[in-house]
Amino acid sequence: MEEIYLMKKKKINIEPPKKFLSFAEQLTSLFPDINIYLAQAGDKTEPKVHIATCLYKSANTSAMMGVMFILLSIFTKNTNLFALGAIIIPIIFLFSFYSSLYAPKAIALKNARKIDAELPYALRHLLIEVKSGIPIYQSLVTISEGYGKVSENIKNMLKEINGGKSEIAALEENIIQNPSFTYRKSFWQILNSLKTGTALEKTLQSTVESIIKDQILSIKRYGQELNPYTLMYMMIGVIVPSLGITFIMLISSFTGMAIGKPMFYGILVGLTLFQLLFLNIVKTKRPLVKL
Questions:
Q1: Do 114 and 97 fall into the same domain?
Q2: What is the pLDDT of residue 9?
């Protein structure tokens, strides 16, 4: 059972053919940011390999959709499906390609939100350690556990230092590869203090206070943004359906138009999809602040 579980957890790498690699190498100049997104997502894949893999997956998806349209047109004897497939398949290819191409960016943004939630508490812990006179390396070791994604980044940096890289060089590389702007800004200030020899305590103190103020402002902005969202929900989710159904019933009584069950089922499905979309928007807008 354990072997089966490990096989499921293991990532399946799809190696694209060499033709895709040579074509992807020519496209790397069109997507200069992919290298940054891959590094921030913790993916060590080369940009050309990533682009080639996305092209290969998209081509396979489009080919399967093309076969499906051909089979449907044969079984239904409807030649219009060929024209429909000729329009839809390129759209599917482009959508599949861009969604898989920028998947590392989505992962990086998700990791950045998690880092921002834990960062002020990790830096506060680091401040306590530095105030106690503990060296910066040992202070970083203490926050390499218990702070989620922040601790993961610190662990990776400590591995580089233990491998022989200097603290400043490892810190610079860690900052560049981190997806969180707040993390990069905070540790750049720490790095500048280490380079210039200025007091690290004051830098950490001001950094922690600045991050906490930003989090408080983000919570206030979120509360202000909820007001129009709540109004929109009341209009579309409550008022419009109730008045709309009443209006439809009045129209049907005067015109004699029959109202079938499909219409009510359609309204119910539409309301369900709207509520799911509304909850997703509210969830994504909510700032990740650890209480």
A1: no
A2: 36
Q: Per the domain annotation, does 218 fall within a domain?
A: no
Last residue of a domain, one of 50, 82, 101: 101
- Number of compact structural domains in the chain: 3
Tokens of 19: 């033709």
The model's confidence at residue 15, banded by pLDDT at 50, 70 and 90, is: low
Kindly state the tokens that stand for 194.
């280490």
Half-sphere exposure in the Cβ direction for 183 (13 Å, CA): 30
Q: Which of 177, 212, 247 is the last residue of a domain?
A: 212
Mean pLDDT of 142-157: 89
Q: Is residue 118 in a domain?
A: yes
Q: What is the pTM of this model?
A: 0.68
- Quote the CA–CA distance of 261 and 72 in Å, as a whole number: 30
Q: Which amino acid is at 99?
A: S
Q: Is 13 part of any domain? A: yes
pLDDT at residue number 12: 45
Say if 137 falls within a structural domain. Answer: yes
Domain residues for the domain of 135 are 108-212
pLDDT in tens, 150-192: 998 899 899 988 888 888 888 888 888 888 888 898 889 888 8
Query: Which CATH number do you get for residue 128?
Result: 1.20.81
Q: How confident is the model at residue 289 (pLDDT cuts 50, 70, 90)?
A: low
